[in-house]
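[recover] target loaded
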């Protein structure tokens, strides 16, 4: 879990190795006008995804939507606003965005990080229960989840989208279009405006 200020906005970024996902939520404008103290990892899991909580109110939030499940934020009907996360290798990102700044207070720069942090533990499937699975895709297929205007949600197969874009083909559905960014993907609408999106295993 990372809590950081970017361009004057406070952002909480949960990362889960079990579902290969990262989201980014604005935490500086909560109901009642008070900023969040920061997001934390609860140690609990839901559908193989970490469950987070807000430190000041002790409210539990669902990680994929940041909707509050309990506590004062639930009573206020709070859902944290989300922004886009692009999953990319550092080398490709640095080439595409050479002026990028790094949040690495612990000196993580200059170290190699494993592409598979679980070291093969879930190669034969999820290592914790996920409940009933949607059979349209394999549970560990990587998808780009996009939230369109009007809260329409669409999942694009990451592998298929990357292959199509590499061939110069268009990847779009319901007014949501995928674009290559470094070695990752991002989404825009018909007007070219950024849409909220992140990459994850289909199971989550």
């Amino acid at each position: 879990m990372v809590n950081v200020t970017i361009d004057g906005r406070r952002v909480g970024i949960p990362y889960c190795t079990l579902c290969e996902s990262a989201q980014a939520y604005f935490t500086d404008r909560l109901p009642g006008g008070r900023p969040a103290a920061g997001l934390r990892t609860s140690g609990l899991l839901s559908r193989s995804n970490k469950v987070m909580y807000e430190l000041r109110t002790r409210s539990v939030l669902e990680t994929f939507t940041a909707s509050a499940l309990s506590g004062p934020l639930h009573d206020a009907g709070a859902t944290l606003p989300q922004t886009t996360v692009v999953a990319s290798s550092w080398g490709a990102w640095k080439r595409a965005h050479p002026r990028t700044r790094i949040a690495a207070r612990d000196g993580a720069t200059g170290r190699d990080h494993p592409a598979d942090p679980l070291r093969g533990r879930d190669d034969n499937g999820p290592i914790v229960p996920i409940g009933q699975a949607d059979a349209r895709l394999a549970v560990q297929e990587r998808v780009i989840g996009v939230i369109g205007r009007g809260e329409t949600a669409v999942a694009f197969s990451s592998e298929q989208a990357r292959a199509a874009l590499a061939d110069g083909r268009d990847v779009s559905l319901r007014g949501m279009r995928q674009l290559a960014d470094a070695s990752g993907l991002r989404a825009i609408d018909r007007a070219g405006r950024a849409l909220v999106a992140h990459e994850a295993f289909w199971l989550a």
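[recover] notes: The chain has a mean pLDDT of 88.
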